[in-house]
C-alpha cells in the first residue's frame, strides 16, 4: 500500500487509536506527532509515561484504560453509530487536511455524505424571524446546487440551516456526544438528521456539552466546509469564533449584512468590514466558491503513519533544547515557528520538547499553531 492511501483500521488499531486520543493531555496535534514519532498508537501509549516525566510531570500520566474504550465502542455500535478514523476513506477530506483534525469521529447516519463539498451556515441562537427564514432558504439553495450544509444544531440559525437542507444533505456537528441532544427543543431535528443526514462528534457518547467544548466543535464545522456563512451574530459570539477559525484554516468567510440598529447584525457587519464576502443569497456564495469547485480534485495531505521516526536526537541536544524552549515560553501564546526561529536547535527537538511539556500538562496549544505555558501546572 502506498503511503497516505486510505485504509481501514483493524479492530486492535481502532482500540489503540481511541485509547490514545482519550488519554490525559493528548490532543489532536499531539496525537499526530506521537504517531509520526513512534509509528503506531500502541507504541505511543507505551512511550507516554517517560515522555511526560521528561516534560516535568511528577505523578504518572493517566492513560485511558482498555475497558473504558471497549465500553465506548460497544455503546456506539449498540446505537448503530460508526467510528471513522483520520486515515479511513469515509473521513471528511477537507477536515483531514487540518493539523488539528480529530483522529477519530463518531457518526450517526449517511456517512457517504461527508465526501461532498460543503458550506457551513451558522449564526445567532436568538435569531430573528427574517434571519431564520433567510438561513433556511440559503441552505436549501446551496443543497440544491449540490453542496452539503454543515452547522452545529444549536437553536436559531443553526436549526434553520439544517431544516433547509434536510432533503439535500446536512451535517450536525455537536459539542457533546452524538447521542446527547442539546438543546432539548431540537429532539425532533436530531432524529431527522440522524435518519436523513449525519450527526457527528469527536466526544465520547454520553458526554454532556459544556462551554469549553464548543470552540473545539466549531473548528470541525468550519474544517469540513469550503467556507463559512454567518447569517446573524452578536459581537464575541460563537459564530464569530467559527468565522475566525475558518480564516485560520484558509477557508472562505461569508456574512449577511444587517441593520446597524440590530445587535445581532453587528458581528456580520464587522466581518464584512474586515473582508468577508457580502451575501444576500446563495448565488453570492456559489459565485465566490466557483473557482474552487471547478479546480481539479486533489488528495488531502497524507495522514498515514507508517513506522517510527528513525532520526532521534541525543539526550544532551534535547536537554539544551528544553532549556531554550522553557526560557522562551510564557503564559501569552507564542507562534511555534517563532520559537523554532529563536532556538539554536533543530525544529525536531523543539517539537519533541513541546510534546513532552504538553503531555506533562504544562503546555496549552492555541489556534494558529501557537503555544503557551499553563500557569501553576507543574506537579
Give a nutshell description of this structure:
By secondary structure, the chain is α/β, with parallel strands linked by helices. The chain contains 15 helices and twelve strands.
Description:
With 379 residues, the protein is of the alpha/beta class. The protein folds into 3 domains: 11-93, no CATH class; 110-294, Rossmann fold (3-Layer(aba) Sandwich), CATH 3.40.50; 315-373, Arc Repressor Mutant, subunit A (Orthogonal Bundle), CATH 1.10.10. It contains 15 helices and 12 strands. The chain has a 9-stranded mixed β-sheet, sandwiched between helices. The protein is globular. 45% of the residues are buried.
Break the fold down into its secondary structure elements and pairings.
Blueprint: H1 11-21, H2 28-38, H3 41-54, H4 66-78, E1 82-85, H5 93-96, E2 104-109, E3 118-122, H6 129-144, E4 148-151, H7 157-165, E5 170-173, H8 187-196, E6 198-201, H9 213-224, E7 227-230, H10 238-248, E8 252-255, H11 263-273, E9 277-278, H12 282-294, H13 315-328, E10 334-335, H14 336-342, H15 347-359, E11 363-366, E12 370-373
Parallel strand pairs: 3-4, 3-7, 4-5, 5-6, 7-8, 8-9
Antiparallel strand pairs: 1-2, 2-6, 10-12, 11-12
Helix pairs in contact: 1-3, 1-4, 2-3, 3-15, 6-7, 6-12, 9-10, 13-15
Kindly report the CATH topology of the largest domain.
Rossmann fold
CATH level-1 class of the largest domain: Alpha Beta
Total beta-strand segments: 12
End-to-end distance, in Å? 44 Å
What is the approximate shape?
globular
- Going by helix content, strand content and strand pairing, the class is alpha/beta
Please report the number of helical segments.
15
Multimeric state of these chains? Answer: single chain
How many domain regions? 3
What are the secondary-structure elements, in order, as H or E?
Answer: HHHHEHEEHEHEHEHEHEHEHHEHHEE
Name the strands of the widest sheet in spatial order: 1-2-6-5-4-3-7-8-9
The percent range for helix content is 40-55%
Amino acid at each position: 500500500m502506498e503511503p497516505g492511501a486510505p485504509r481501514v483500521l483493524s479492530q486492535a488499531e481502532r482500540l489503540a487509536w481511541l485509547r490514545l486520543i482519550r488519554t490525559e493531555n493528548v490532543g489532536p496535534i499531539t496525537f499526530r506527532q506521537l504517531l509520526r514519532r513512534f509509528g503506531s498508537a500502541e507504541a505511543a501509549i507505551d512511550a507516554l509515561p517517560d515522555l511526560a516525566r521528561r516534560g516535568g510531570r511528577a505523578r504518572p500520566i493517566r492513560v485511558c484504560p482498555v475497558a473504558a474504550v471497549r465500553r465506548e465502542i460497544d455503546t456506539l455500535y449498540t446505537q448503530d453509530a460508526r467510528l471513522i478514523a483520520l486515515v479511513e476513506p469515509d473521513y471528511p477530506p477537507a477536515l483531514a487536511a487540518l493539523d488539528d483534525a480529530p483522529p477519530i469521529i463518531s457518526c450517526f447516519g449517511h456517512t457517504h455524505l461527508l465526501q461532498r463539498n460543503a458550506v457551513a451556515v451558522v449564526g445567532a441562537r436568538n435569531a430573528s424571524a427574517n434571519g431564520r427564514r433567510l438561513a433556511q432558504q440559503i441552505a436549501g439553495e446551496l443543497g440544491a446546487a449540490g453542496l452539503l450544509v454543515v452547522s452545529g444544531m444549536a437553536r436559531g440559525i443553526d436549526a434553520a440551516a439544517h431544516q433547509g437542507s434536510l432533503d439535500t444533505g446536512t451535517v450536525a456537528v455537536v459539542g457533546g456526544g452524538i447521542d446527547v441532544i442539546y438543546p432539548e427543543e431540537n429532539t425532533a431535528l436530531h432524529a431527522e438528521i440522524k435518519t436523513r443526514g449525519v450527526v457527528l462528534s469527536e466526544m465520547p457518547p454520553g458526554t454532556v456539552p459544556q462551554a469549553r467544548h464548543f470552540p473545539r466543535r466549531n473548528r470541525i464545522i468550519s474544517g469540513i466546509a469550503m467556507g463559512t456563512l454567518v447569517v446573524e451574530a452578536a459581537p464575541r459570539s460563537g459564530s464569530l469564533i467559527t468565522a475566525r477559525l475558518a480564516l485560520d484554516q484558509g477557508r472562505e468567510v461569508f456574512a449577511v449584512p444587517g441593520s446597524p440598529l440590530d445587535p445581532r447584525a453587528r458581528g456580520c457587519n464587522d466581518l464584512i468590514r474586515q473582508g468577508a464576502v457580502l451575501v444576500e443569497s446563495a448565488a453570492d456564495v456559489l459565485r465566490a466558491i466557483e473557482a474552487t469547485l471547478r479546480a481539479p480534485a486533489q488528495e488531502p495531505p497524507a495522514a498515514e503513519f507508517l513506522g517510527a521516526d528513525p532520526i532521534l536526537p541525543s539526550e544532551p541536544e534535547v536537554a539544551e533544547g528544553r532549556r531554550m524552549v522553557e526560557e522562551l515560553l510564557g503564559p501569552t501564546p507564542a507562534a511555534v515557528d517563532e520559537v523554532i526561529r529563536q532556538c539554536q536547535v533543530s525544529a525536531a527537538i523543539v517539537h519533541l520538547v513541546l510534546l513532552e511539556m504538553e503531555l506533562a500538562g504544562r503546555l496549552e496549544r492555541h489556534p494558529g499553531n501557537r503555544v503557551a505555558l499553563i500557569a501553576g501546572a507543574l506537579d
